[in-house]
Amino acid sequence: MATAAVSASRPTSLGTKIVALIPGLLLLAAVGYAGKLIEQSIAVYTKSHHITFPNIEYVLWAIVIGLFIANTTGIPRVFQTGVATYEFWLKAGIVLLGSRFLLGDVLHLGGISLLLVAVALTLSLTFMHLLGRAFRLKPKLTSLLAIGSAICGVSAIIAAKPSIDADDEDASYAIAAILALGAISLFTFPLIGHSLHLSDKAYGLWAGLAVDNTAEATAAGALYSDAAGKVAVLAKTTRNALIGFVVLAYAIYWASRGEAQAVGNKAAFLWRKFPKFVLGFLLISLLATLSFFTKPQLTSLANLSRWAFLLTFAGVGLRTNLRDLGKQGWRPFAVGAIGEVFIALITLGLVYGADRFLHL
Amino acid sequence: MPESKSATPTRGFSLDLYAVSLAFALALLVRFNLIPPIKW
């Protein structure tokens, strides 16, 4: 999303490009910071007046303010390029978050995530294809929805679209359905997690495995707790790392049916589709494990990651246009929604099992 | 279609690369105390 919007404006020079980003960046910062101020003000007010009130994280305020602006006044053109950078801040934030993990934790939790992702992925893809057939969706639209909901949302759909020669219209439907469902997950997952009394680790793992888009998965985790947000990012990053393999499998499938171009060098294809920020995350984690940073420096890096996520969460709200989401046909949305509920239940069962047998 | 075939991976690569570069630049600035401690 961000990349498309950035490239769409095609500024002529680097200076013009940077200047074009400033208004939107300021808007992201203002919305995110307003969310942080509201959280702090409520905490101070309720404490000073001895009122018991649940802490509502700045994440939710930033998203709600963003949603309000996007769906009332709309985002003026001058802000759009900068707002679209929220995905960039998300990736930078994830890399910096690597400093909060020792490599051993990454391997332990990442290994469990990988195992659960593999099981969930197989079941989800099979179920989505059966659903698509039952709702008579076009096969390639079903493929895009399956990739989007099983692996990693919009990025996966964008990565898969050219590889399987899907129509623009199919990609737009799939993206709209995934975005709408991501927005719903943001508000429902924390409520379900609290009602089931899930631990921070179990909830974070569940959000990372079940919520589609990386930005929404990060936000859904952070809405629960800081610790849950950390685990959600790790689980989602593990899921993202598999994007290349899934897209490659689909590309080979559609090419075998003569409906997409054959894949030449498969290793090069995998490398092209591999999200490079995962490597950055692992490298920072390795440096933290080797005590390259002191404790106060690790705190600074964790705080930098929080600031990057603050811009991301503001962007999540600002880019969600409820009217646009409503314009899609009901069938792709229905398939996506039923699929999401299925994936949420499957992954919840897997997380319960992992918590019991693999000791999260 | 041919346009998107070549454009998508390149754009994805650039965005990731820029994000990783920024994160490492900040990490080095913090490591060598070239910026003040970051507060939240």
SSE blueprint and pairings:
The complex is a heterodimer of chains A (360) and B (40).
Chain A: H1 2-9, H2 14-48, H3 58-71, H4 77-83, H5 86-97, H6 103-134, H7 139-163, H8 168-195, H9 200-210, H10 214-224, H11 226-241, H12 243-256, H13 266-273, H14 277-289, H15 295-318, H16 322-326, H17 330-357
Helix pairs in contact in A: 1-4, 2-3, 2-4, 2-15, 3-15, 5-14, 5-15, 6-7, 6-11, 6-17, 7-8, 7-12, 7-17, 8-10, 8-17, 9-10, 9-11, 9-17, 10-11, 10-15, 12-13
Chain B: H1 2-31
Describe the structure.
- The complex is a heterodimer of chains A (360) and B (40).
- Chain A has 360 residues and is mainly α.
- In chain A, helix 3 packs parallel to helix 15.
- Chain B is built from one helix and no strands.
- The N terminus of chain B is likely disordered.
- N/C terminus separation of chain A: 34 Å
Category by helix and strand content of chain B: mainly alpha
| Spatial shape of chain A | globular
Our Rg estimate of chain B from Cα atoms comes to 16 Å
Give the quaternary arrangement of the chains: heterodimer
Largest interface: A-B, 42 and 28 residues
Keywords:
A: 360 residues; mainly alpha; 17 helices; disordered N terminus; B: 40 residues; elongated
Give a quick precis of the structure.
With 360 residues, chain A is mainly alpha-helical. Chain A has helices spanning 2-9, 14-48, 58-71, 77-83, 86-97, 103-134, 139-163, 168-195, 200-210, 214-224, 226-241, 243-256, 266-273, 277-289, 295-318, 322-326, 330-357.
